[in-house]
Amino acid sequence: MLAIDEKTITDAAVEQMSATRDPRLKEVMACLVKHLHAFAREIDLTPEEWIQGIKFLTAVGQTCTPYRQEFILLSDTLGMSSLINSLHDRRATEKGTKTSLLGPFYRQDSPPRKLGESILSNPRGPQICIYGRVVDSTGKGIPNASIEIWQTDDEGVYDLQRNDPSVMDLRGWYHADAEGKYYLRTVRPLGYLIPMDGPVGDMIRAQGRHGFRPAHIHFLIGAPGYRELVTALYLRSDDHIDSDTVFGVTESLVTEITPHDPKSPIPDLASIQFDFQLASARAEDASGRVGADPSKIVKNA
Ligand code: BEZ
Ligand code: FE
């Protein structure tokens, strides 16, 4: 019989899982157990600390409701979602715009809008224009590419956080023209605090972190034959641009609002110009979406 101790336990656990039929599951679980045990050994984890960790994960699970996915928030705030996005980008065989977090405020059934229309149901306040092209890895425009966009208003609030979450606002579904060009109107978004009233918020406070996301605009872009792109554009002027709580910001996605851009299709509005690049899809490509989909949730509730 094997003498179980702090060293042999890892091989014993991996050995007991060795009959796992799915080869990828077998590989993932063996690697997970090895790293989990190595973590406990390295930090010399005590029983109290492990129970505290289990209580925390239990609270994370108990905070999840049909409206809220606290585990994804945990994944986001630990940098795990951003890491998974980077690994997803690395698997692409062609150049493309970097992925950024889908986040919990995406809804599948954004209202269809025509190019040039505002994403606000009742346009109010100073508008800006966002324009550019959706291109392939060679820079050629992708005709009719699908562009979903969603963001906060100028107070940092999403439609889903308002009194009646079934009302759609600050989101839209556009299609690029025959040359891959797009343009739309919106308002300047404001940064916001991630949900801080659950165990993830407790963790953020315990770590002395601020909990803010810098101002950003989300995009989900696709076309037949291309890898779906989940990304966001960030505003350089935001105070939290270098300390996003969920690590979604990366230099290539940081933009500025130009007050007067003669090349803009709406030159009398301040504007952001950005070209999105899609890599070709391969048969084995999985979705790059890491995030909850509250749209289904709100409908079913
Ligand atoms: C968001 O960008 O909508 C978001 C992403 C991660 C956590 C919270 C919000
Ligand atoms: Fe967001």
Shape: globular
CATH superfamily descriptor of the largest domain:
Aromatic compound dioxygenase
- What proportion of the residues is helical, as a percent range? 25-40%
Tell me the fraction of residues in β-strands, as a range. 15-25%
CATH architecture of the largest domain: Sandwich
Number of strands: 11
User: Structurally, how many domains make up the residues?
Assistant: 2
Quick overview:
27% of the residues lie in helices and 18% in strands. It is built from 7 helices and 11 strands.
Describe, in plain words, how this protein is organized in 3D.
This protein has 301 residues and is of the alpha/beta class. The chain folds into 2 domains: 9-45; 70-294, Aromatic compound dioxygenase (Protocatechuate 3,4-Dioxygenase, subunit A, Sandwich), CATH 2.60.130. It is 27% helix and 18% strand. It is built from 7 helices and 11 strands. The chain has helices at 8-16, 23-43, 47-63, 70-77, 80-90, 199-206, 294-300; strands at 127-135, 146-151, 171-175, 181-187, 192-193, 212-213, 216-222, 229-235, 254-255, 270-273, 276-277. It has a 5-stranded mixed β-sheet, with no helix packed on it. Strands 1, 4, 10 and 11 form a 4-stranded mixed β-sheet that branches. The model is unreliable at 297-301 (pLDDT under 50). Benzoic acid (BEZ) binds next to α4.
How is the topology of this model organized?
Layout lengths: L7 H9 L6 H21 L3 H17 L6 H8 L2 H11 L36 E9 L10 E6 L19 E5 L5 E7 L4 E2 L5 H8 L5 E2 L2 E7 L6 E7 L18 E2 L14 E4 L2 E2 L16 H7 L1
Helix pairs in contact: 1-2
Bound molecules: benzoic acid and fe (iii) ion (FE).
Fe (iii) ion binds next to strand 7.
